Structures are given as C-alpha cells and as structure tokens.
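Following up on my earlier message about flavin-adenine dinucleotide. Here are the inputs again, as you asked, copied directly from the submission form:
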Amino acid sequence: MGERRITKVVIVGGGTAGWMTAAALSRTMDNLSIHLVESDEIGTVGVGEATIPAIRLFNALIGIDENEFIRETGGTFKLGIQFHDWGRIGDVYMHAFGQIGRSLGMLPFQQYWLRGRNEGVAGRLGDYSLNETAGRQNRFARLPQIPNTSLDGIAYAFHFDAALYVAYLRKVAEAAGVVRTEGKIVSVRKDGERGHVEAVVLEDGTAIEGELFIDCSGFRALLIEEALETGFEDWTHWLPCDRAIAVPSENAGPARPYTQAIAHKAGWQWRIPLQHRTGNGHVFCSDFISEDEATATLLANVEGRPLAEPRTLRFRTGMRSRAWNANVVALGLASGFLEPLESTSIHLIQNGIAKLIAHFPGRDFDAANIDAYNRRIRFDYERIRDFVILHYHANQRSDSPFWVRCREMGVPETLAAKIELFRSQGQIVREGEELFVEIGWFQVLTGQNIVPCGYHPMADALTSDELAGFFDDIETIVARTASRLPFHEEYIAQHCAAGVPA
Ligand SMILES: Cc1cc2nc3c(=O)[nH]c(=O)nc-3n(C[C@H](O)[C@H](O)[C@H](O)COP(=O)(O)OP(=O)(O)OC[C@H]3O[C@@H](n4cnc5c(N)ncnc54)[C@H](O)[C@@H]3O)c2cc1C
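Thanks, got it. Here's what our run produced:
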C-alpha cells in the first residue's frame, strides 16, 4: 500500500468548503501534505450562516471547543426553523430539531397525536416539543435530557457569521500544518493519458502539483466542470428560485434562537440572528418577480437598520453528475446547490468530507471506490432535494402565479411516494442514511396542511382518558422545563459572548 498512498492534496478555494475540508483532513489524516489555494480578488460567496445539529459532529471531528467557536464567529444557538405563510398566508409552524413527545410501546408519538387531533384532545404539535416551546420564549440552554424523565432535552445547531467562520477554520487548519497560497488560478494542467489533473497554474506562472484535488472553487467549479467537463443535472423545474438578495441589519431585539423563513409572493426571506447583526436574504424566482421588487420586499421586511447595500447572488439548483471525477472531488457549491431553506449546504460539505475520508483513495483511484462515493452523495442530495421541494409543492396559496405553479408542478417519484404514504396512513418511512428523520418530515407535512386519512390502529389501545392524560403530562413537563431555561441572550452572555476572552 505504501507506494500507492496519496501524500499530496490540493484544495482549490478558500470559502467555507475549502477551509472545512482543510481543517478536517489536517486534523484527521496523518502523513498528508495539504495545500490550499484561494484568490482574494475573487473572494467567497460570503453567505451560509445557518446550520443543522449534525455540525456538532464536525466540530467534534476537528476537535474544537464549542464556546470558543461561537465566540469567534459571533454565533448564536438554533433550535429549528420557523416558517411563516408557507401553506397559507397567516400559517406559522416550526421545524424544530430533536424529539417531540415520546413514543409509547411500538408507536411513535405522532401516531397518537394524529388520533388525539381527530378527537380534539391533542394541542399544537409544538406544545410537545421542548425545542419549539423554548424557542417561542427565546430561551435556551444545553440540556441533553429533561431531568427525571425519559424525554430528550434540547437539540441544537448554530447560526454564525460566514466570514468569521472561514477565518476561524483557517486558523485551525493552518495550526495543523495546511499551507495556503494566495493567487488566481488561470489554467489547469492535465495528464494526457488518464485525463487526471496534475497541477493548477497561477497568474504568476507558479504550478501547484498534487495527486488528489478537491474542487472547492464555488459556483465556478474550476476543476470538476471547467477542466473535466463532468456535467450538471439541473433541478430548476422542481426548485425554480434562482436568485437571492442579501443584506445584513442591526439586531432589532434579542437574538431569537431559531431561523425564520417567511414566504413572499415569489420566494421567501430568511432572518438569521447573530450576536452582532442579523443576516437577511430574499430567495426568489426571477421569472415571477424583478430584482428591484425583490429588493424592495426584502428591505420592507428587515427588522433593524440595514448595515450594507443589498447584493444579488445568482444560482442554479441541481448537482454535478458525478461529485468525484478522476482525481477531482468537488465539495461545496462546486458539487451542486440546494437552496438554503433547510440550511443543508454546509451539512452537505461536512457529509462529503466524511464520505471522502471513508473512501479515501490510493493513487490508482479505484473506479469501484469512486462509484460508491458518487452513489452515496447522489442519494444524500436527492433526498434533501425532495424535502425542500415539499415546502414549495404542498401549498394552498392562490395569491400569486408562483405558488400556483409550485403546487401544480410534478415532483420526483420518491417524494410523490412519501406524500402518498403519509396521506393514506399518516406514516413516514426514512430510507437508508437519509438526512431528515421522521419527525422532521412530519412537522413539515402537517405544517404544510397535508392531513392523513388515518393513523395506526395501535394508537386506539389507549382509552380516551389515557390519551388525554398522555398529552397533558408531556405538555406540562415541556412547558415547565422551557420556562426554567435562561433567556438565549443571557446564556450566550454567560458562556460564549463574542469579544469576551475565554
Ligand atoms: C443565497 C445563499 C444562502 C445560503 N445560506 C446558507 C445557509 O444558511 N446555510 C448553509 O448551510 N449554506 C448556505 N448557503 C450555501 C453556503 O453559502 C455554501 O455552501 C458555502 O458557503 C460554501 O461555499 P464554497 O466554499 O463552496 O464557495 P465560495 O464561498 O464561493 O468559495 C470559492 C472559493 O474558491 C476560490 N476561487 C474561485 N476561483 C478561483 C481561481 N480561479 N483561483 C483561485 N481561487 C479561486 C475563491 O476565491 C473562494 O475562496 C447559501 C448559499 C447561497 C447562495
């Protein structure tokens, strides 16, 4: 194996994807020389500030202290995403992380809730979620378990400043030996025989050679597409939004411990609270609304004073036909893009890195290994795609042609089957390693007003009184626990306030 072993990796790009990859490989793989090339002139996309709880695994992988990480990135805690006006105008629901209620016997909580809702004894789904109940009161603490019960505590992710996150990861990676070169790549040298990338060449003529290349060059996809012409699968017929206007603003009140996603006429707006500002953006479909109108809508719905000029980002939803081609593995925006509705892009980077480590190649770049990696990445992308489409498709809005079109469009078979099963049985089947768990799907399906015809017959095993008591007990525990948590801002001030030395 010795002579087959890869010893030199070149990462092209120093955005979130590039520096996450650099930090992870340098902290986990021995005897690897890692070189990262980035261009200050080109810069990074500069957005990407909301995450999902799996990021805590990434932090553990690279061995960073969570409080230090939050301090250095101006971060806040995230308990879920609150959706406004998605099913119908006036609707509000949350996709909260973590457990809701608890299972009883062989049945998950949601089957009892479906019965309880039919019989008028169940409250709002969110009343049985500690995350949602705490979020609504702006409260947060790290609490893995509700004391003296079998109920899980708080599940959380983070919001952070994209630029500060990159700077922080760079510090971690450089301390672990990653070598950085600043410069613009103007050409790519390939070997004539196998078509592998041999080197990237900078404006000043310097060639940086490597054995394995990681393309983190963003939407440009410098290696995977420009050099290797891998191909791109376009999903805009299912996810038609193609632009975003982003603007930061002053915080108008205490930072909420959740992201907000507010539907508008031809898209939606994010609000991401950080310690020092709020990130705002309007994701929209340019077939239905002009950039000027989208900007005006955003500015009319920003809570604090804007801190910069709004800027436009253009994108195309879809994925690279093969994320790994020859000796190039694409990560981040170079590998594909799913819009930020469920904050999954940074997760897809982390996921790609974990799978790259699992499938780390030898110099022969075994085709079976590459195929296995590509199959797994495709599966992950497609299942997340389905989940995001669900939010758009399952709407009852008739106030704009955009929402009517989303409702009437066909959806991938995998999603159609999921919706059908839910409608008929109230059931959700999570397949393989798919990212979102049953209760996540359940919150969005019911939040978007899809009502199942029935529930599992075993939920009838409880008498009506027992069922009502089951709900009351959980609601009481959740409400009492939430009310005793500190306010989110107090918790941050005590543990991880930006600008306060450790
Ligand atoms: C509107 C929007 C909102 C988003 N919100 C979220 C979110 O809330 N949560 C989430 O998880 N993700 C979000 N994302 C996605 C997230 O921003 C990206 O996944 C993440 O930032 C990774 O970007 P990247 O590193 O792949 O690309 P970039 O940030 O574009 O970095 C590309 C790098 O390549 C370098 N480069 C390019 N060409 C050359 C060259 N010729 N020579 C040298 N260097 C070069 C650049 O200098 C740069 O360093 C969002 C994306 C968009 C568009």
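One observation from looking it over: The chain has a mean pLDDT of 96. Hope that helps, and feel free to reply on this thread.
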